[in-house]
Structure formats: structure tokens, C-alpha cells
Amino acid sequence: MKTRIASVDEVRESFRGQGYICNDEIATAVFLAAQLRKPILVEGPPGVGKTELAKASAAFLEAPLIRLQCYEGLDEAKALYEWKYGKQLLYTQLLKERLGDLLGDAVTLEECMERLSGFGDAFYAETFLEPRPLLQALRSEEAPVLLIDEIDKADQEFEAFLLELLSDYQISIPELGTVTARTEPLVFLTSNNTRELSDALKRRCLHLYIPFPDMRLEQQIIAARVPDVAEGLRRQLTQFVARLRDMDLKKQPAISETIDWARALVLMHAEELSPATVDATLRLLLKHEEDMVTVRGEMHRLLKD
Amino acid sequence: MATRILTEFIKALRGADINVSTAESLDAMQVAEKIGYADRARLRSALSLALAKSLPDKLRFEQCFDDFFRFVDTPDMPSTEQDAASPLPPQDDARPGQGAGAGGGTGSGGGEGEPAAAAESELGQLLERGDNAEIAQRMAAAARQVDLTRITVITQKGLFARRMMMAMGLEDLDQEIFRLTAARDPRALSLRAARNALREASIEEVNRQFLLHARETRQQLREEVMREVSLRDLAEFRDVRLLVEKMARRLAALHGRRQRRARRGLLDARRTLVASVRHDALPAELHWKARKPRKPKLFVICDVSSSVAAASRFLLLFLSAINDVLPRVRSFAFASRTGEVTDYFNEAGSAGTEAAIDRVLSEYAGSGTDYGDMLGFFWRQCEASLDRQSTVIILGDARNNDLPAAQQDLARIAERSRQVLWLNPEGQNRWGTGDSVMPMYLPYCRRAMPCRNLNQLERFVEVLLRDMK
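^ Those are the sequences you sent over. The predicted structure of the assembly is below.
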């Protein structure tokens, strides 16, 4: 991982080069997180580019990205490590005869037990360990960017389990002892705020809130991602989307949806927004029938300059 | 010095109800060190990363940052100083130094504009030079020396302003002014004017600090007072709803979590056996039964007659604030008549709770409460839906205007349901005095608690939630 970062502006420029347009606040957050080696918790409405930020940071830092998607019921076994049960069983079956030989002259149960324990924990050794994302991140030769996506979907227990990792970059595995990170990863946690995260977790992280971009920033994003859109249209469509976000909708259009919409408008050779073009392409922006009905009713107000 | 400013800033944040832990303060120091103090906007977003950990916190943080660093920011200080001095423009002309520069035609004072005539005291010299930036710096230093952050009451303002001026060397200046006045020296006048301007500036400074710090401690103090004050007087506080919501959120978070923990039930022997076939009959994977979630029902009956209405209001407010943890609640209101008001709340939705409560209170308001009638009504209405999962909460003072108490109805209700909980807005020592029939109802209540203030109400809701899980 790149360790020397000169300034916040360097981060921002690199992001710009990758097509990830962001404001000063976001760049500052990444700069600080990388400099202080602190985990960073990113919150905000869906579709503002939280996951994208982690990807862009990994590219900027020239570090591998390890991703852990959280969901309800995620536990250590799936996030950290698992024993390869199948392999363990197979080995015991195959080695049955050898075991017989080894234990051949032992008569009493105690003797057998003693002999067996003499071989050490052969079946709980590294060979049978299946590393999952978190362990991968800790054992990685090169410091990675670890993305723990949608932490709010995981259970409270899992959140508590992460605390050790976040503050000391180490994790305790009962059978192996404490695993300390070879190189400290840069951790991104993202949350859509479906539930309140615990204070203990928040305390260990820098906290970044990404709101929907303002019109100026969104125009820049569109300009970077869909360069074919004429400037007049770009202004019109970002204004339209900004007004949509002010309405009481079931699902507000995300940045990615604005981009999709802009692409569609380019394909349709639209020069400017008219009720007809909007009506034909609205499905790209809105994903609920009720929202479409609401918006169609207010089309004229939304399109007014 | 930077550390000190940050520590003070964090103190102000804590006062503004943003919880900053020690670890986070340390983070903030590191962050500030990396970012530097040159770029104000960047410093603000950087500190916000380390100190404010939720959206509401971030908004409060920004407000607080702007208030706080308006004072500390050095470029701002001269201008505020000028503001403070502006009410006394003539004094500028009277200052010997400037008077001489503008042309010494002002009479006998002309000759005294020379350096030889400069004031003797240090503060006097400073004021004569009229270097606003330096005065501001000195004032900031004095403010730190006096520790203005300790100011908590508005009446301390004069005291703290005076202490600040003392720290800047007021005593010497005063003596000099005294001497000059005695000698009928015209410079006494200008010095006195400058001293007045300084005093005003000091008071202004103290005011600003007071607004920043005391407002926030006051907020905490206020919350404490609000928790203790009797519910009847509480309606006067405008921000009480916020406090109730805050308390409710805390409880909801506490108990919501607990519910999740209890979800896993006993070992599911059947599924474990089936799964073990894959592993040579070794039970390598364990399966658990899902615990059947209990579906408790809640019935709330509120006395809304004028003497008790306030308590009812807060109980309803509290219950609606935790409705994501609580199961379905059916609410009833009564004074002279009884009726079900569940729909009022359903229609209003979570946003309109207060409006719904107002509607209930106005429609059912009255005097001459009849508890016997209410119990009979409730029994007839809900006999069928009461079961072992039902909890009935009754809020009222049990002052029955000498009407029959009908405790046998309460007995039937208690028999049918899981429990009856009674909340009485009167202190325990008044139960049973006058026309209160509380002692007759007591045997049928699993718990009877007073609820005179928010603290007691919170305790009750906590008991309730623990029981519900």
C-alpha cells in the first residue's frame, strides 16, 4: 500500500482521475484514515457511492480490496474463518489404519488418550483452516483495503465481535490464539442506517456522512461519467433529479440512477428535457409504481426552469 | 495552546449534547495536527469526522464549531474588537496619539501627543497605541487566564468581565487615571474613554462565552430539572417532547437488543440428527429451534380529566415513541365517559402523535370521573380479547367522586389478563385519602406505581419493557 500521501488534494485528484468525483470532506476523510490508520465508517442514503469510495481508495492506495458483505445472521464462521470439516473427516478416515498402528500396543483407554494427545492438535492446524475475508485481511502480505459493506445489516453480536479488529487490528481465535495483522489494513465500514450502530463501534471509527450531492457536484459527476451529455441537458437533468429528491418518494433516485438516465438520454439523442422524453425514461429513475404516478402528476413543476 | 483550545472546544461539544469520549478527543488532536489550522473549512470537516458520529450530531457540531471558532480565529478578532469600540467614536479623536497626528489644533493637548507624554501603565500604553489586534490577543489571553468557560449564570457576567480586565492590568491603569484626574490632566479623559471601551469589549467577550458554554450546561441542567418536575408543570417546557423521545430511544435500543438475543431457542434434536448423517453420525452441526416470539398485547386506559391529563399526555407520548419495540397497543380514554381512541393514533401516524393526543384530550375532557363505569365499559369491550398475553395499564388518580368503585370488574379483568399495572399521578401517601378508592383497586394490580415526573414514568416504562420481552 502506498504510505506517503502528500495532501488532501492529492487524494481528490486521484479520485477525479478514476472518475470518482467527490467534495473536500470525503477526500479529507480518506486522507486522515490512511494517515492515522483509523477505520472509517461511511453512512448515507443508498446510492451515494459509499462502496465506490472504498474501491476508489483501494485503487488510489494501490492496495488489494477485500470485501465482506454483511447480512442478517452473518457470524464469525462466515466472516473470519472456518474449519474445513470435509477435509478433516476425510483425513481421519484415510488415517484410520495408521492410527490403529500407532495405537496398536496401547491397551487401556487412558494410554490411548495419552498417546493421541502426544501428536498435538494435528487436526486443528493451519492446513484445515479456511480463511474468510477478515482473516485474509489480517494475514495479507500487503496491507489491503478491507471493505465491510452494510454493517447495519449484520447483528449486534457481529458488531461487537468487530471491535477487537477495529481498535487493535487483531482477532482472537480460540484454537489458534490471537492473530495480529501482518500489515494494518485500511478498514471501510458502510451503513445505510437501517439501525443505529453501537457507540462502541462509532467511537473506534472516523465517521463520514455522505449526503446526496448538490447540483453542482452532481453535474461534475455526470460530466465525468457521461461526457457526451451537452451542458444544457446536464444542468436540466441534475436539477430535475434534485427536485425529485425533495419530494416524498418511496425510493429516491441515487447517483448511479442519474448516470443511467443520462446515458439513456444520450442514446435517445435528447437535446433537452421534454415531458415526453422524461415520461419515456422515468422508469430508469424511479423503481416504484406509486412514485411514478406521483411524479407524472407534477411533471410540469419539476421541469420548470 | 492548540491542545487547550481543542479541549475547550470539546467541552463545549459535550455541553451541546454530543458525547465525546476521551479516545475521540485524542483522535481529534491527531486529526488537527495532520490537517493544521490554516484551512478553516477543512479543519471543520476533519474534526467532524473524529468527533460527531451521527447526522444530528454533525449538524450540532457545525453550529458549535462556528460559534466557538469565531472567537478563537485570529483573523476575526480585530474586527470584533472594532465593533465593540464603535459605540464610542469620539474617544478616538480624543486619544492623544491620534489627536496629535490629525493636527494639534485641539488646544492645550497638542503638545502632549509626543512620546514623552505616553501613559505610564502598560495597559494604558496599549490602549493609546490603539492596536486592535494586540488588544484582542491580550483579551483572549486574559479570558483563558480567568477561564471563562466556567461561567454558568448570567449574573456572573460583570464579575468575570472585571476579572478579565484585572488580568490585563486594570489596577495600574485605574491608578494612573486617578492621578491624572487629580492633576487635571486632559489625558485622563481620553484614558477613561478607552477604559470604558475596553470594559464594553470585555463584557461582550464574556457574553459570547456565556452563550457558548452556559447555554449548553443550561441544557443539561434543564433536562435534569425537566425529569424531576411534576408532570403537570412540564407542559410549559417547549422542548419536553425532545427529551421524552430521547429517553424513549434509549429504552427502545436497550430492549430491542435484548429481544434479539433471546431469539435462539432449545436444541432441535431432529434437525441435528438429520444433519449428522452427512458426518458419519457425528453431530457436527447443531441446529436450534426458533423461539416462538411472544405476542404481548397492551391495553392502556388513561384518565384525561383535568387533574390527571398531563400525566396521561406523557404516558401516551412515551408509549408512541417506543412503538417500534412495543406490540400492538389499544388505547382508551375516559373522564365522564369512556371510549376507545386507538384509531386516533393509527390515523395520525407516527408524525401526528401529538396532534392525536391533543384530540383525545379535548374530546374526552371533562370532570366527574367514574372509574366504576370505566371498568365496566372496558370489561364489556375487551372481555373477548383479553388473554394471558395481555397487560392492562391504567393511569389515573382513582378519585371516584364517591361513586361505586366496582372493584369486582377490575378483579375480573385481572383474572382474565396477564397483569394489571396501575400508574397513579399522586404520591403514595395520598392514595386512599378523600374520595380516592385506590386501596380497593390495589389488590388486583400486579404493580402500582406513582408517576409524578418523567423519571418515574421512565422507570415504569422500563419495567414494562423488561416484562414484555
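Chain B touches chain A through 28 residues (CB under 8 Å). Residues 73-116 of chain B have pLDDT under 50 and may be disordered.

Shout if you want it in another format.
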